[in-house]
Specification:
With 208 residues, the protein is α+β, with helices and mostly antiparallel strands. The protein contains 4 helices and 14 strands. A 4-stranded antiparallel β-sheet has the order 1-2-3-4, with helices on one face.
């Protein structure tokens, strides 16, 4: 390659980089995407007409997706948001659930959901806990896969991604379960798809 062609190639690469940078700036300024995750979360909450609140938990699921748990103690609610990152730069809001109530009487809850993005299904379990003895929460999924849930500010979440083409091979006969342990790894509570909540007022009534 002669010097003239090298200069031409250099100019072409430079202009392509400028064009790419301009596109990224345009998307960030005039769409719901942003290089700042907090801005994307704030925009999503404005659309849902709920007050802004801090991110309590971030869980990476795969395929550049994350599940966020947003806790609003002032208004006693919490939310779950799916986000993903494009080109490793731009955050995008991909849906979620808003306005789940925080109740002091709930010792432990177990709520699940699923969203499909592309060729994968993203499953999650979330909930709240108000028993200070709880130190660890462990989820056992229907197919035997196990994971510890992420915990912060009285809420928790666990999430996983399964390729749709492989899902038909999964065994859905078993129930999903949540096990709560104390600091000494003693079992405190067990919840499942059929028993999703333990309340202090119910426990008190049963004891009396």
């Amino acid at each position: 390659m002669n010097a003239s062609n090298k200069r031409l190639l250099g100019h072409w690469i430079r202009w392509m980089l400028i064009l790419l940078s301009s596109c990224i700036v345009f998307i960030a300024m005039f769409s719901q995407s942003s290089i700042h995750l907090e801005k994307v979360v704030r925009n999503a909450m404005n659309v849902a007409e709920v007050p802004s609140a801090p991110i309590a938990i971030r869980t990476k699921i795969g395929q550049s997706y994350e599940l966020l748990n947003i806790v609003d103690r002032k208004n006693a609610i919490y939310h779950q948001l799916f986000v993903n990152r494009t080109l490793g730069l731009l955050w995008n809001y991909r849906g979620g659930s808003f306005g789940m109530k925080l109740e002091p009487q709930v010792l432990l809850s177990f709520q699940g959901g699923m969203s499909t993005f592309g060729k994968h299904r993203h499953y999650y379990y979330v909930g709240q806990f108000n028993d200070p003895k709880i130190s660890r929460l462990h989820v056992v999924w229907w197919d035997g896969y196990e994971q510890d849930a992420a915990i912060s500010d009285g809420v928790y979440q666990a999430a996983r991604s399964i390729r749709i083409s492989e899902e038909s091979q999964q065994n859905f006969s078993a129930m999903n379960k949540l096990f709560a342990y104390d600091a000494n790894d003693r079992l405190l509570y067990e919840l499942s798809d059929e028993n999703r909540e333990i309340r202090s007022d119910t426990v008190t009534e049963e004891a009396s």
